[in-house]
Amino acid sequence: MCATVLNRFLILLIICFGNWCLADLKLEVNDACATQHYQGTCISTSKCSHISEFMDNLGLKSTDVMSCGYDIKEEVICCPPEKSLVRSANRPAEHACEKIESRLITHGIIYDSRAQRRYPYMAYIVYNVTGHICGGTVIHKNFILTAAHCLDLPEVMPTKVILGVSNLNRFEDEGIEVDVKNIHIYQNYSAFTKYDDIGLIELVEYDDFQGKVNPACLYTEPTELFNGTELTVTGWGSTEKDLHSTQLMMTKLMYIPLSQCNASYANYIDRRIPRGILDSQLCAYAPGRDICGGDSGGGVVIIDNDKYKVVGIVSASINCGANLPSLHTRVAKYLDYIEGIIWPNGYV
Asked: What's the burial of 108, exposed, middle or buried (CB within 10 Å: 0-12/13-18/19+)?
């Protein structure tokens, strides 16, 4: 019994003096600290009241929050600054956008050999098995923004992405293949619903894009888009003739406000959206136009200040071509999550 007590004493490393105890801290209270996801300050858990909201915003697990040790009564954790929850001005995504060159082409025919030049942010995902088609958006030289359902597939893994190509039949001549280094799936994503459908593909270091690739900006405005805002969606999805297109295709949809979108789905029962349409989703619609299989993961973009800005990620179309708005992940709701992976220290 004495040995057990001694072992516990050695493990906890607690020294008691009279009526109080001092735990052995890895870092001192108020020391600066940093993890791979954020920078912060070591403070008592009870004083870091915003940590749960911060973890939800970034899709972090409890194991992602660094422990600094223990004080007299409780654990001391690496607590992020509160301002990181509401930062809008001068956030990393905005700084990154300032560095992105405007490469808009606003004339000519959509479906020609210049399609990829029109949308130089488009990425085609290659898997270890055939039969899966998804796209993505280049938002950084080493990261592709895509849908979580394009990454969370049993025994199916993305191995490469093809950049700078419009016609998949000519990707060996036109495209740039880059290997996948890692995948990041939003922590709260579930394959059983269409919520939190967002993830990132991390690429191996690669810089020689031969002028064919240009990232899109992230849309950072917290305000709602105007009803009817024109949205551009691109992808290699199915067409009337084929299961999927080998040519990069484009369609224009209109933004549908959340209340109107929920009204459209009022009489539609789908277990994938048990809570209705949430503000973390974005709806789009146009008569006779829709997204289809193979468009998943691609960017939903607007043109703002002569730059493409990603407002959404193609998530789901209920019965392709049906008279219902398509569902997309609203990027602005996941900025902390994206920035925490791409720019964990806040530096661009």
From this structure: exposed
Q: Which of 71, 197, 295, 336 is catalytic?
A: 197
- Establish whether 245 is a catalytic residue: no
For residues 184 and 202, the answer to whether their CB atoms sit within 8 Å is yes
Which residues in 171-196 are b (16+ Cβ under 10 Å) and which e?
beebbbbbebeebbbbeebeeebbbb
- SS3 state of residue 141: coil
Catalytic-residue membership of 207: no
Q: Cα dist. 99→145, 326, 348 in Å?
A: 18, 32, 9
Q: Are strands 307-316 and 217-218 parallel, antiparallel or unpaired?
A: parallel
Q: Which residue of the set 37, 84, 140, 149 is catalytic?
A: 149
Catalytic residue among 238, 296, 315, 326: 296
Domains and CATH numbers, the chain: 22-85 (3.30.1640), 92-342 (2.40.10.10)
- Collapsing DSSP to helix, strand or coil, 146 comes out as strand
Please indicate whether residue 149 is annotated as part of the active site.
yes
Each residue's pLDDT tens digit, 31-77: 878 787 777 889 999 999 999 888 877 778 888 899 999 888 889 99
- pTM value is 0.71
pLDDT digits (tens, 9 = 90+) for 121-146: 999 999 999 878 899 999 999 999 99
Beta-bridge mates of residue 17:
20
C-alpha distances (whole Å) from 62 to each of 41, 59, 199, 226, 254 are 17, 10, 19, 38, 39
Query: H/E element holding 182?
Result: strand 176-185
CB-CB contact of 197 with 313 (8 Å): yes
